[in-house]
Amino acid sequence: MMKFFSFIFLVITISGCSYLSNKFESFAESKNTPAEPTVEIKKINYCASGSKLQYISEDESLLKFYKILSPAIFENKNISFIQKAIMLSLIEMSRRPDESSPYARLQVYLKLDGKNYYYDFRPKKLEDDTKMPQLKGLDYLTRKFLPKKNLLSIAANLDTVVPASINVSTELEAFLRDNRQDLLKNETLTNHFFKGDEALTKYETFQRVSFKSLIQQYQSSVYSKDSDYDFDINGLDANKVQKENYQANCNYDISKELSLRDELLASELKKAHTVGISEGEDFFLAVTSATLYKPFKTAPKMSYFMKARPSPLPLPVCELKGKGQDIILFSSDGRNPVQHLQHLISYDIDQIDSSYTLNEMLNFSRHLFLSNPDRILYESKRGRKAQLDFFLAMNFPIYHVETLGNVFGHATFKSDKKQESSLHIDDRSKARLWCK
Questions:
Q1: Confidence class for position 233, pLDDT limits 50, 70, 90
Q2: What's phi and psi for 336, nearest 5 deg?
């Protein structure tokens, strides 16, 4: 079976992504064959050259929310870039307690003043669910890069700027609806997210947590001890794939065969929450991952934040460095997100030389090899007939799916003629990108 997977992956690698740009060979098709329709890009997935300030919004409605905050925070020249990133992370935590819990594992890739940093904040004991890795991470970044400030003062400042009432996003509405009965069993959650017995809906508001009170509770407890946390486990230097023109540094060994990783699939499926902001040459990418406990429980003085277990495994991230190219990609959502990065690296990503061609590659149809039972999941609507015919000819079970995974990150391209730098979001997600 592994030999078969290796073979099919090799063939798809050679042919699967080839139509994306003139850098790749086209499929061998008759000149009389009608051209396949291209996928229409319905949103901005990267910022055009010259965009000095960029950040990721969860969905279209949140762009309006952040547009109001932008002059006071993101466009404020008196606030340093790293402080803006920490503020954005705190705001996102307050907005999405179901995904971005203080108890969540926090992975950060940061470029600041020309230097790159990668951190993976988690408890030293993975089974320890009393720690708050996300707050520990933000506290650590504050102490390291803002020695004249502290997280409490940043939180207090944020309380004066962010509205006390926050809109319910589309995804939070779905969480409240899908978990209505369980949430109603907790009085604190009922008071925050329900009107009577009815969960709040999209565009309704809830009272956000006090940032200052949250940090005070964190700092006055045992949660803040450095000795209870790991900061840089699963670093990007441990797994390197060296090719002629570029090097891939990842927190997983992507050189292995495409067999399913038992340790990934043994863990519960979970969603991740994304934070991204870029200003000039600096950028900050963060992702949190955790599994909520049921029945839902809240801790005293922790407002509406539900007890959660930080993910025992980090989400896959790769740093791709080539001639005139510097790309950082995170992969999240669904089963075995490592495969999506494996496929991208096999698609001659070293030939990508612009945000446009990277976007084309990220939009290309994805597939996953799964076992028990053996099958292929395939985004048929994004693919070409030649690729589908190849799958069908293998007489292997194929399951058509609308979307697979969520790949996002940042890319910089330099040449003698131009230089461009941008955040990148996945066309499959509801996320939106703000460019100024």
A1: low
A2: 50, 65
Q: How many CA atoms lie within 13 A of 272 on its CB side?
A: 28
Residue 214 and residue 91: Cα distance in Å, rounded? 12
pTM, two decimals, is: 0.87
Q: Nearest 5°: phi and psi at 92?
A: -65, -35
From residue 134, how far is each of 66, 186, 291, 313 by CA, in Å?
Answer: 22, 24, 14, 15
Length of the chain: 436
Q: Which residues pair with 423 in a beta bridge?
A: 410
3-state secondary structure of 9: helix
Q: How far is CA 400 from CA 321, 383, 384, in A?
A: 33, 11, 13
Residue type, 183: L
Cβ pair 218, 224 in contact under 8 A: yes
Rounded to a whole number, what is the distance in angstroms from the first to the last CA of the chain?
50
Euclidean distance between CA atoms 3 and 337, whole angstroms = 21
Q: Residue 107: in which H helix or E strand, if any?
A: strand 105-112
Those residues whose C-beta lies under 8 Å from the C-beta of residue 207, and which sit 6 or more positions away, are 164, 165, 192
What is the torsional sign of CA 109, 112, 116, 117?
negative
| Residue (of 270, 20, 227) closest to 124 by Cα position | 227
Distance CA 338, CA 332 (A): 8
pLDDT one-digit tens code per residue, 317-351: 999 998 889 999 999 988 889 989 988 888 878 88
Residue 230, Ramachandran bin (φ over 0: left; ψ between -120 and 50: alpha; else beta): beta
As a whole number of angstroms, the distance between CA 192 and CA 16 comes to 48
Secondary-structure percent of the chain, ordered helix, strand, coil, rounded to 5: 30, 25, 45
What pLDDT is stored for residue 307 in this prediction? 92
Residue 254 · residue 238 · CB < 8 Å: no
Grade residue 20 by pLDDT with cuts at 50, 70 and 90.
very low
Strand order in the sheet with 367-370: 367-370, 375-378, 398-400
